[in-house]
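User: Can you predict the 3D structure for this chain?
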Amino acid sequence: MIHADDVRALWLRDDLEHIPAVIFVKPLGDAREVPYVSSSVETVLGCTKAEWLASSWWEEHLHPEDRDVVLAARQTLLVQSSSTRLEYRMITNDGRLIWIGEFTQVVTSGGAPWMLWGLLEDITVRKLAEEQLAFRASHDLLTGLPNRATFEQHLDRALARAVRGRLSVVLLSIDVDGVKEVSDRLGNDAGGQVLREVAERVAGGVRETDVVARQGRGEFLVLLADIEPGPAGWLDDASTEPDPATAAADMVTGRINEAMKAPVVVNDVALEMTISVGRSIYPLHAADLGTLMASANAAMHRAKRSAHRER
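Assistant: Here is the predicted structure, written as structure tokens:
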């Protein structure tokens, strides 16, 4: 526990103004004391000392999505006369978003709360690095889509909701034909450009709440979740299919196939790319994640073999 004499001693140190973090002290009801903030507030938070001391600048510049949690933590801190460590976002005067690491503690005098002492540090670089690492671990770097591991997490949660709510789940397995041939003929960069274009077209055929992922060189997965029994109100066609999940699978597959009719242009070369699509539906075809994935993959390979026979 920090006591009043400790803060007074710290306050008088000349090098306090040179610490590359914001040090602040806020009185807790004692009119004889005055608030303090170090000069670093101007470089770290982009506000003047006068703005900080004369207004509720800190509270007003909390990121809207973080404000309630941060203010609740501050209130708990004051009630319990304890300390807290937080990480949250703020918006500076010039509109920049920064991440702040905060350590705050209630200072006592005579056993009663006296001051709120805190340190605010700009941790934006670290948070951005953490976010980048997390993105690289959960996404395919070529297309920016979720990777297979992340997709399986979404699918697992969708199946759990389906069991509880008696809903249906559709899984589409998609293979892009001829990607290797494009890479052999035009180079790996061309093959990558084809896959990025296909990823955009597949993603354009689903709802915002659905999930599209890349699981292999030319393979994609699509998850249509939370499909309720009865009339499927989000379908935009006049399908007569009585099962909403099957109708949804038909509609999305049709959209994706339609999008693939346009050539993919790479280095001024127009490429006619085709896809093979397999589907699996919970609970119609499978009752668990592994079986659903295997069923959709098997259906995709059947479609691929059938298309090859027709050529």
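The CA atoms of residues 211 and 223 lie 5 Å apart. Residues 231-238 have pLDDT under 50 and may be disordered.
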